[in-house]
Here is the input.
Amino acid sequence: MYGRYVISKAEDFDYYPETLFPYMSKLPFFWLFYPYLCFLWALPKYEIHFHNFDGGLLRGTPLEYWEIRFRHLAGAKDVLYPYGGDVLRLDLTPGLLFKHALLTDYPHFGKIQPIVERHVDHYLKFADFIYVSVDSVDYLPYWNFILMQLSAIDTDAVNPAKMKTGELRQRYRDKKIVFHAPNHRHIKGTGMLITACEELRAEGRDDFELVIYERQPNDAVLQGIHDSDIVADSFIHGVYGMFAIEGMALGKPVMCYLRPDLYELYSHYSWAKECPVVNTPLNRIKENLVWLLDHTNERERIGLAGRHFVEQHHSIDAMGKIYDAIIRKVWYGTNELDLIRNQTDARAGKLEQSSRGSHATASHRL
Here is the structure.
């Protein structure tokens, strides 16, 4: 890890250049040559390298476009996965609302588009395997494996049974707490969420409190989720991310917008139909929020369904099986990934048959 965000702790990661080369890190201009040291350290040590389209250990250096070729010469393989901005192209961005929000939060994106395109073209040419999730399908011409969301969470550590009541719940003990933690407000639709809450207050509704955390450590955010009654995630992007997974892992109902075409894609080839988030586009924030505030039993039911969903699909064990299958596919050419696809398709088929024979759940109707 070359650097970390304020939300993370140093002990969250195994290696830093400074810990790998403690004496050399004290030398002047260490930052200029540590990418090369890290690359030489890793080359004989690892046979499969996972990285995104920004590049690997030599990203940002004059040799960044040679790194993957050097590894191939050494007999190693590269698995590529996009995280978002590394493949995002403005000319391919669906929906002007998301494009405007993106440019508002990331105004530099317009200027780095040629770099993004060059990186994508380069790694598409040399990657041994590419897996994608969420909306990265909008920006890549092909991939080898697809799942709705490939984030994992430690369900043993992030567990409502192990959490204690925090300061937030004590402060608002007589109100329902709507919790929102945006990394960037425009993409999350924070302004529209605030407007919806203000309209409810103007109508005389004072039984809830909107709490917004920004640039807070992960531990504080998890405590805020646990103290809340409703988690409000994202209303423009059209996919769910780590914050929604954390909310579900802690047994909370999560409001999040799922883009219809992505929902259709991941219903057929992943677990979208099992996902219990309360699907909330911008024009339904107020309506869905009122429904959740008024239905305590449904909040609890959706929260329990969310916990089960995360245990099934986003636990370290569940996601580890997928990564294990990817590694075996890349190195040995085995077909465990086909089994995962078949299991996912079978679950989706059973769920569809079940929903035809009974009324849709309230969360699906929403």
